């Protein structure tokens, strides 16, 4: 560029350059003839006008002129170019801004050539205006300036630097994110540090590296807890720091002093870079501010933005970040202390829950001893003359009442412990509510009350836990009956928007206004309330509220004292409010008849003696304790029970059929078992010295005793207790109080399975023996149940023809049990004979066996087996595999389902080898996605209340032994819902026709 000289201005020629402050004076002093623009006298009027506007504007304006894009600007713009001023004045833009010309050059060129304006908002330009590439942001427009020829002579550029705005907003977002972490209630200091660096990580420009250190108590050093940034920064921020290191200066940080160092002054081998590839040249170590005057918990090490010097704004921002970090850590430590205090209170609460559970054991044992013998006496056709039926019924009713109270207390204990596992299933809520409410009809009539059940059908099924819903209905009606001495009780069910609403309205004594707010408090009772009885624990409505909450609903009470009350329960429709893992797609037919009986019996007990029905004995005919006709199995049973009365009762129940030995605790039981192993162990759970679970663990851990069947007796009811017992290795779990028939049936079943396993115990390893016991249980459960039911029906039937029919069916099922047992034994001994046989015939025979079971359940089973399909292998083993698939299909479809069985030729598309395809398809509920990958694992089952989880595992093992493959396809939604399982085996016969792989 030509040299410049300052000359005296020509006032006439330079009038358009008047004003403009220092920049205007400088422009007037320049010898423009030495620039590419030429002397001022030669400037066109369009340029003069543009420059005049520029100089006299308070806004930063830049004029680019001519092909060289010479720069002319005002005082406001000179602050933007900083140390490039005044050199930039009259110079080509390419020379002044080479570092950003790749960005702005094409924009200017477009305006000069096309004459169309362009605009940029908050455009990032890294200007080297202060000795380093600086992060700068600008909002500007490039507008064409038309010269006298009508062409574009230059570009008019108003400019606003937005650097502080853009960076300020970015830093504000970071501070906001850090504040959100603090309000998020992190649970520990370490968790707080990790959450903080996750928020810091989003601002990679201002905080390219950030490490949080906490002082180690008593060591004089500090440990890095969390960090964000490149891994090559660890030399500057090591995992552990002690007082001997030069960087960071831990002594200064302990005293509360900050330290900022340039990378050149820190002894480091690898110079770290940020995520954009730029060298981090400045490092800052800051102590975390003390909270409440206490000692600092630690410090931070930060790598600074290479494109921004540590000015006052940057320092203030870093200080605010450190404040947030320190405050969040302090809050987390306070929360942790509070959590420890809460844990202490929770431990007290758990101790209370444990007390309830332990007390329940003491309640349920005498209940068993009361209700069991009384039920047996009531069942006998001829009572002794000195035994009063009325007295027995009185004892029985009070026993049921005590059982109801115990169950209510246990329900509360489980809810407080978070151990209530509800199963929500689609339910005809109107029908369930009406059926439950109708149990009180007789009591209402005897009391002279008008009883209205108004439950019209609801258009869609409602997802509820059936047992819990019955308890809700029973509690509401029982409560209304208790406090309604005359008038009416009305039970209504309606839908209101997306809610199902149950209301129970009565004309009873009502609730005082001041008592309404506390009516759902546990153990709260309204003093002086007029009712049929003053009995009550004050826990019914509190339990009711908890059960409603488990359904995502609410309950409210409205009452006018002396006129009556209305209780309303609202639960949402649909399933969005319920936990997905507790939903059941297929409804069950289970009922809590015992619970209903207890409520109704209690209601009758509230009536005056004259109002009680004379013919209201409890019907126990369905629970007959008669043993099946052919129950002549012998066996030796060891009973471990600490209650002497319970020991005597159980021994009397089983003593007529089995040899029963009794001991008083688990330790004595273990000693006796080791001395003389029994055929079956019947043990209480809660015993002194060695409890039932510890005894079970000892037996399962001893290879010589691990196969002995163990049945647990426990006062702990509920699905979670049963699951815990089965997961611990028990063969069965019986809840007290139990009936004599239930105990006899379960003991008989497990002794039968034990005899089947007896020949294997000496030859199999521990794992094989365990699998065998579970497998026999899996395979024999259904036919054994059928046989037991048939024998029971034969005893009850009064005709000889009926007895013969039932006994014939029982004999057939027992023979099937024997065949399956022999097949199982052969399979695990590994000596099953191998032969070439017709798989088609085997499939048809097995389907015929299952026809009886399917017909009783209304299941349609269709078979299509091509003839002359031969395979080589174990006929017994393949029979077991197909039997397992058929059993699973029957369980899956339930009543009135459909099963299709096919046996075809199949051509392997990979090897072109002829195979045999056996397909078992059902239209059941399908298998959920979360369970599919684990279906073939041993002991994994999707069944809620039965199943060993070995069926498909055995099928897979058998198919693998026969060099075949196993495939499965399942759907849980739509019209094609169900499961298809296919076994593919090598064929041993020439093919006449084969089906394609697509058909498989």
Sheet of most strands: 6 strands, antiparallel
Query: If helices are DSSP runs of H or I spanning 4 or more residues, what is the number of helices?
Result: 26
**How many domains, in number, for the residues?**
5
- Kindly report the spatial arrangement of strands forming the biggest sheet: 8-7-6-11-10-9
Structural class per helix/strand content? alpha+beta
CATH class category of the largest domain: Alpha Beta
Strand content: 15-25%
In words, what does this structure look like?
The structure is a single chain. The chain is an alpha+beta fold. It folds into five domains: 15-161, 2-Layer Sandwich (Beta-Lactamase); 167-340, Beta-Lactamase (2-Layer Sandwich), CATH 3.30.450; 422-592, Histidine kinase-like ATPase, C-terminal domain (Heat Shock Protein 90, 2-Layer Sandwich), CATH 3.30.565; 624-814, 3-Layer(aba) Sandwich (Rossmann fold); 832-999, Heat Shock Protein 90, CATH 3.30.565.10. Helices cover 41% and strands 19% of the residues. The chain contains 26 helices and 30 strands. Strands 8-7-6-11-10-9 form a six-stranded antiparallel beta sheet. The longest helix has 68 residues, at 312-379. It starts with 20 loop residues before the first helix and ends in a 14-residue tail after the last strand.
